[in-house]
Design a protein that fits this description.
This protein is α/β, with parallel strands linked by helices. Helix content is about 40%, strand content about 15%. The protein has 11 helices and 8 strands. Strands 1, 2, 3, 4, 5, 6, 7 and 8 form an 8-stranded mixed beta sheet that branches. Helix 7 packs across helix 8, helix 8 packs across helix 9 and helix 10 crosses helix 11. The radius of gyration is 22 Å and the shape is elongated. The relative contact order is 0.14. It binds guanosine-5',3'-tetraphosphate.
Length: about 280
């Protein structure tokens, strides 16, 4: 999905989330486990105000398990509960409810003490495009979509998805914008496939990908692209080596640089080098 974010669109997106805050008990902030900070909305704290929040590190299957654990600790140290999930395969789904209950434990206990029987927790998913919001909603929804609010006098039909007895989810997620004014964030979003069109120079994206690999996964870089000396040559030469090793050669026998560019990006996105975490707490 491609969304051009202009100030008017951002204001509207923000308003849509703000309006729904009063309906819910907790926000599920969905981020990409491979780039947990770059895939966040830069104004999230301001937008959701003091609403309790659970961070869902989605696409955990595509990220480095150990680094994802480090991110969970990173958020924990900042007072935010985070869990790793894979919406595509459906793992971590049960934990969402229990983590939401934990996050709201004080409030639930207070109500219980007053003799109020706890009702299902109401939640809303927010996140940037392509982070997996629809996949997660579909996964949690199964067939349990309950229509409410379509009675006379209720202006807006609001659908709640029942997830077991203890959780209800708004069926429309809040779509927020990424921190695209930061060049590095843009490159990471492009590398993970969150931005698919050529807003960015693809060669820059590919070179950035190689540099991240050299920094964090030097062995995989060398092995996959058969770059024995890593990135110790100039970039054109590196592209020549990859082109030759991977058959990206044009008819006249020269390196097809566009093909090499595409191949590097595609292989990183499609896990040809295995699960990769493209940012780490220690880099912060
Ligand atoms: P959005 O609503 O936030 O915009 O995202 P959406 O659910 O459409 O998901 C974007 C892509 O991410 C989808 O790929 C989806 O299958 C994939 N995805 C979502 N959650 C996970 C996950 O936990 N693990 C993995 N591996 N993939 C996940 P798609 O529809 O196949 O799009 P594309 O591959 O054609 O780009």
């Amino acid at each position: 999905m491609t969304i051009q974010w202009f100030p008017g669109h951002m204001a509207k997106a923000r308003r849509q989330v703000t309006e729904k805050l009063k309906l819910i008990d907790i926000i599920f902030e969905l981020v990409d486990a491979r780039i947990p900070l770059s895939s966040r909305n830069p104004m999230i704290d301001e937008i959701i105000q003091h609403k309790p929040r659970l961070i869902l590190l989605n696409k955990a299957d595509m990220a480095d398990k150990q680094i994802t654990q480090e991110w969970i600790q990173y958020f924990q140290q900042r007072g935010l509960r985070a869990i790793a999930i894979n919406s595509k395969a459906g793992s971590g789904m049960r934990e969402i409810t229990s983590a939401a209950q934990d996050t709201l434990a004080e409030k639930i206990d207070r109500l219980k003490a007053k003799g109020v029987k706890p009702r299902a927790i109401r939640a809303m998913i927010v996140g940037i495009p392509n982070v997996g919001k629809s996949t997660l909603i579909n996964r949690l929804a199964k067939k349990n979509i309950a229509k409410t609010g379509n009675t006379p006098g209720v202006t807006k039909a609001q659908q709640w998805i029942k997830v077991g007895k203890e959780l209800e989810l708004l069926d429309t997620p809040g779509i927020l914008w990424p921190k695209f004014e930061d060049q590095e964030v843009g490159l990471k979003l492009a590398l993970t496939g969150a931005i698919k069109d050529a807003i960015l120079n693809l060669e820059d994206v590919a070179v950035y990908g190689l540099k991240i690999l050299e920094q964090h996964y030097p062995d995989r870089l060398k092995e996959h692209f058969r770059l024995e000396a890593g990135l110790s040559h100039e970039i054109a030469k590196i592209f020549d080596i990859i082109g030759e090793n991977k058959g990206c050669i044009s008819r006249n026998g020269e390196t097809d640089y566009d093909k090499v560019t595409e191949l590097i990006i595609r292989d990183i996105r499609n896990e040809k080098l295995g699960p990769l975490s493209l940012e780490r707490p220690e880099d912060e």
